């Protein structure tokens, strides 16, 4: 890409980033990004920006450009037009592809989130082969062609057998060199996110949409901070079960709620699959705060304190507003776990609250 074009492109990207930052609160509260999510990119509709382009007018016989004009001549056609002029600013919408990493960086900058420092004991090493040298033997698939060619050319010139009018390079065994490698251990920080959600009758489509939006941004931020991320999904009413992502956001159940069932299943998943010595573990529970009994709420707090919090990075409880839920569970968490730094709570009554909820969860930088 020519230097001038590259500079213009970078300047345009900076304008786009600035526009996204300005409208970040709006993007946090809208689902239009989620349907456009790809493997590495998100396509964002940005208002008010147009890429420079040529615009051609109608080829009529009147107006500027149709011949020599005189002072006072009208420009354009006569007529009343199609209607009164508008008073609102026009909306120019541009679809901009941005990487999930860039989007997460904008989120972190705007919310002033500290970068997460993975726990040292949770860092594991992956083994990789890195090509870092040259050796005289090896398989033909790893032959370094350029170096082999230069060695053969130098040998023929020194021997006086090279003819520039009829250049022909013949490789001999001593000319050939091959790429060599060494095995290295690359530190890799792994993390698992376990999402839990109440799917009883009091959690309707509006509540699930709030959860879906917040989970998208939680994913984006944590994936920016870790090499590898696994996500597990648990739904519960009076019983809990593990489901896939699609089911998690669309399942609808009826009946009561026993939150402790989800916490017991989360503990089983961690105990069987994620050694706290090797994994950074994040748990997020979404509910309207309705539970089957006060005794079960106390049992939940016991499970969090004794089985879930030890060894994990964070337990986040997000209570979404519902016209049918009692909303008492968050009070039990505050009463029994208010002093535990690993337990963080937030309330989301509307989509506009997602901005502050994300900031509440990750400002400590765990």
Features:
single chain; about 375 residues; alpha/beta; Rossmann fold; 3 domains; seven-stranded mixed β-sheet; two-stranded antiparallel ribbon; 10 helices; 9 strands; about 20% strand; flat
**Mind describing the biggest β-sheet?**
7 strands, mixed
Q: Any idea what the CATH superfamily of the largest domain is called?
A: von Willebrand factor, type A domain
Number of helical runs?
A: 10
CATH domain topology of the largest domain: Rossmann fold
Give helix % range: 25-40%
- How many strands in all? 9
Distance between the termini: 41 Å
Structural class: alpha/beta
Brief overview:
This protein has 366 residues and is α/β, with parallel strands linked by helices.
Description of the molecule:
This protein is an alpha/beta fold. 34% of the residues lie in helices and 22% in strands. The strands form 2 sheets. Strands 3, 4, 5, 6, 7, 8 and 9 form a 7-stranded mixed beta sheet that branches. A two-stranded antiparallel ribbon has the order 1-2. Strand 8, helix 9 and strand 9 form a beta-alpha-beta unit. The radius of gyration is 31 Å and the shape is flat.
Task: Give a topology summary.
Layout: H1 3-22, H2 24-28, E1 41-47, E2 93-99, H3 100-111, E3 123-135, H4 145-159, E4 178-198, H5 205-225, E5 228-236, E6 240-243, H6 245-250, H7 260-273, E7 280-287, H8 294-308, E8 314-320, H9 329-337, E9 343-348, H10 354-362
Helix pairs in contact: 3-5, 7-8, 8-9
């Amino acid at each position: 890409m020519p230097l001038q074009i590259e500079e213009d492109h970078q300047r345009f990207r900076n304008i786009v980033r600035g526009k996204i930052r300005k409208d970040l609160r709006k993007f946090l509260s809208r689902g239009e990004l989620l349907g456009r999510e790809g493997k590495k990119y998100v396509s964002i509709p940005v208002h008010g920006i147009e890429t420079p382009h040529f615009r051609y007018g109608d080829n009529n016989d009147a107006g500027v450009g149709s011949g020599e004009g005189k002072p006072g001549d009208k420009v354009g056609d006569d007529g009343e037009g199609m209607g009164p002029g508008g008073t609102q600013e026009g909306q120019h919408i541009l679809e901009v592809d941005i990487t999930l990493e860039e989007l997460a960086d904008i989120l972190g900058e705007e919310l002033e989130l500290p970068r997460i420092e993975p726990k040292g004991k949770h860092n594991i090493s992956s083994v990789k082969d890195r090509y870092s040298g040259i050796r005289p033997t090896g398989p033909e698939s790893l032959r370094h062609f350029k170096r082999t060619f230069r060695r053969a050319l130098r040998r023929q010139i020194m021997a006086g057998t090279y003819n520039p009018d009829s250049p022909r390079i013949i490789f001999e065994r001593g000319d050939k060199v091959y790429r060599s490698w060494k095995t290295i251990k690359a530190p890799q920080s792994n993390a698992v996110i376990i999402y839990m959600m109440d799917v009883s009758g009091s959690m309707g489509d509006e509540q699930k949409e709030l959860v879906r939006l917040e989970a998208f941004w939680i994913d984006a931020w944590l994936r920016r901070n870790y090499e590898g991320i696994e996500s597990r999904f648990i739904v519960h009413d009076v019983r809990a079960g593990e489901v896939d992502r699609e089911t998690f956001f669309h399942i609808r159940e009826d009946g009561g709620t026993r939150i402790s069932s989800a916490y017991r299943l989360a503990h089983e998943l961690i105990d069987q699959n994620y050694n706290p010595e090797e994994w950074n573990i994040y748990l997020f529970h979404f509910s309207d705060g309705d539970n089957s009994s006060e005794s079960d709420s106390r049992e939940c707090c016991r499970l969090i304190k004794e089985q879930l919090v030890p060894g994990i990075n964070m337990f986040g409880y997000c209570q979404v507003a519902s016209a049918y839920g009692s909303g008492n569970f968050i009070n039990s968490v505050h009463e029994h776990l208010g002093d535990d730094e690993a337990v963080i709570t937030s309330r989301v009554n509307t989509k506009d609250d997602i901005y502050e909820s994300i900031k509440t969860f990750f400002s400590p930088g765990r």
